[in-house]
Amino acid sequence: MPRWSSPSICPISDHKLRRSFGGSEINNHIQWLIEHGITAEHIGELIAGLCDRLTADGFPIWRGSISMPSIHPMYGGVSANFVRDGATTIENAEYGSAAVLNFEKTPIYFLLGRGETSGRWNIAKGEGVDDYPQLAEFAHGGGTDHLVSLLEFPKEAALRGVSLSLTSDRPGGFSDDQLAIVAKLFPALGLACYRIAASKTAADILAVYTGAKTSARILAGEIQRGKGGSINAAILLADLRNFTALTEVYQPGEIAGFLDEHFELIGRHVEDNSGEILKFMGDSVLAIFPTDAEDPQKACMAALASARNILEANKVLNGQRRNDGGPDIGVDVVLHLGEVFYGNIGARGRLDFTVIGSAVNEASRLEKLCGTLGHHLLMSESFAVTSAVASECLGSFELRGVSKPVNVFKLAGTD
Fold first, then answer.
1. Which of 103, 124, 258, 397 qualifies as a FRET site for 363, CA 20 to 30 Å off?
2. Mean pLDDT of the region 288-306
3. Could you state a single Gene Ontology molecular function term (predicted)?
4. Whole-number Cα distances in Å, 266 to 193, 253, 307, 337, 370
5. Over the stretch 174-205, which tens digit does the pLDDT of each residue have?
6. C-beta separation of 291 from 368 below 8 A
7. Identical fold, 14-209 and 211-411
8. Short-list 156, 159, 164, 149, CA closest to 194
């Protein structure tokens, strides 16, 4: 078991604080934190501004950091790191990264485990240097004193709290007065961080579940049921071929893993070409590429580039999985062009921001022909004509729910 260093706690009376640092100065810093907590876009602005202000007041701050957990499918936490006379950086700690895996070797983890809200390590005397790699690094760079303060957010919030870390490189480090001032300022800093984190979390989670463009519309106030409008768009519908049969062979966890792998490559190539995924439907993906009234061909070519890249990437993925004894999973892609209603659909308390209309239904019906015709990529006539890509008509087909037969196309020269 490692020998965890106990931090030094140096309380100070308000009487001594008032003699050394006026209440008006503290109030000015609190006012600054509140004002910037309302307007700042990220916590980096707070740590940089606060450290600059305190340094101007004589605080021997060499490094400063704000760290918070994240509610994000890719990142476990975020930190903003200030360095005197250097740039302030933002770091997102990805799941599985060294920052996440080594969290147990940090002063913050030590304080959380003991239920304590603050700690101080005299780096110049070697406190914590043997236990925490970060403090060893600071000591090597000339650090002398390290302070950590923790603030817990409401227990019902998944954003559990915020930590403030300040490091000095001055002999003797921070004074008792300066520690007390930091304690006075920390609640206002925590409140500002909570506001920024709550706003960012709302935007991040909406983007994850609805797409970046759709989430921006929702956050702009388009949340009423039925609110939306008609747009013209290239529609991409991708479906995993014969995927249902795999559920009888593989365990649910394995099935979910296969889905994630294929959805990841589909999503990546849709987004790389300025499209947006609107819905995952079982083993299918619905995406749109809104058209420009003056140049509808541009959206079609973007959708076609996505489709081609998806099919090529799927071949690579299947080849990798085949080497591990896994299944080949084909992807069928249909491209269509038409008018859709883009907006809020659903019950009063549960909405879906998506597209509906005959064009969406036709794309869904066209997808069923991929297996019948033996092609992984099919196009509607409206898409083939507008894209002006070299294509071949496979014939005219009846589609369920569509009043007239439709002409179906494939790319010229493909099997």
1. 258
2. 93
3. adenylate cyclase activity
4. 35, 20, 8, 19, 17
5. 999 999 999 999 999 999 999 998 888 888 88
6. no
7. no
8. 159
**Cβ neighbours of residue 43 closer than 8 Å, sequence gap 6 or more:** 66, 68, 78, 80, 90, 193, 196, 197
Q: What is the pLDDT of residue 3?
A: 34
CA atoms within 13 A on the CB side of 133: 7
Contact, 120 vs 185, CB < 8 A?
no
Is 3.40.50.300 the CATH classification of the domain at 14-209?
no
The distance in angstroms from the start CA to the end CA of the chain is 64
Choose between 22 and 385: higher pLDDT. Answer: 385
Cα–chain-centroid distance for residue 404? Answer: 44
Question: 225 in the Ramachandran plot: left (φ > 0), alpha (ψ -120 to 50) or beta?
Answer: beta
Q: How far, CA to CA in Å, does 229 sit from each of 117, 216, 415?
A: 51, 16, 39
pLDDT category of residue 328 using cuts at 50, 70 and 90 = very high
Alpha carbon distance 266, 287 (integer Å): 10
The answer to whether the CB of 68 falls within 8 A of the CB of 89 is no
pLDDT at 12: 36
Residue spans of the domains in the chain: they are 14-209, 211-411
pLDDT in tens, 74-87: 888 899 999 999 99
Residue 140's contacts (CB-CB under 8 Å, 6 or more residues apart) are: none
Beta-strand pair 377-380/406-411: antiparallel
Q: What is the CATH number assigned to the segment(s) 211-411?
A: 3.30.70.1230
Phi, psi of 343 (to 5 degrees): 175, -160
**Residue 248's beta-bridge partner residues?**
none
Please check the confidence at residue 350 and state whether its pLDDT lies above 90.
no
**β-bridge mates for residue 75, sequence order:** 94
pLDDT, average across residues 362-375: 92
Q: What is the mean pLDDT of residues 342-353?
A: 87
pLDDT of 373:
93
Give the relative orientation of helices 212-219 and 176-210 as an angle to the nearest 10 degrees: 110
- pTM of this structure: 0.73
CA distances from 367 to 5, 205, 244, 273 (A): 63, 30, 16, 21
pLDDT on residue 208: 82
